[in-house]
Design goal:
The chain is built from nine helices and two strands, in the order αββαααααααα. With 169 residues, it is mainly α.
Length: 169
């Protein structure tokens, strides 16, 4: 939002990385915006499919890493409602763009969040399983071992500090 103001652009909304502007911008303004975003470590995404993929990623990351609210519907319904599109369409586009399914992307982020919670050492494995919406500790344990190659207990005693930026998963 600050970058928009710096170059004199008014906006209506900013949501999930999407900016709604009241009018079209000039080529010069677009170039200024690209440069301003780039200097902040961001980029301007203009392709509608790329924008949608980024919205899916953002929704997953926000839900898993930054929300304690348990979804009342399956994640597929949540995404469909949030983005106002058919889940099959979203899923196919995501897989085509990223080379993995949305489900795999979700699992990857859930396991990274589980690692983080283990490192905090404030919750039991059962509490982590509940917090991360696993049906049981066994389900969490099996998925964790499948994704990492190690058990929850081994990770707790020998785990390394997480050095992966969640946006790069």
């Amino acid at each position: 939002m600050q970058e928009l103001k710096k170059i004199g652009l008014n906006y209506i909304t900013v949501d999930l990385g999407v900016v709604t502007l009241p009018e079209d911008i000039t080529k010069e303004q677009k170039n200024q915006l690209k440069q301003a975003l780039h200097s902040s470590g961001l980029e301007l995404i203009e392709d509608k499919k790329d924008i949608l993929v980024e919205q899916i990623k953002t929704a997953v990351i926000e839900s898993i890493h930054y929300s304690d609210t348990q979804l009342k519907v399956p994640f597929s319904a949540y995404l469909s409602n949030k983005l106002n599109l058919n889940y099959t369409y979203l899923s196919n586009m995501f897989t085509e763009s990223e080379g993995i399914t949305i489900a795999h992307f979700i699992i990857t982020h859930k396991i990274e969040r589980v690692k983080e919670l283990i490192q905090y050492d404030e919750l039991t494995f059962s509490e982590i399983a509940y917090k991360m919406h696993y049906s049981s500790i066994a389900h969490l344990s099996n998925q964790f071992k499948k994704m990492t190659g190690i058990t929850l207990s081994f990770y707790k005693t020998h785990g390394q500090r997480r050095e992966i930026n969640i946006e790069n998963l």
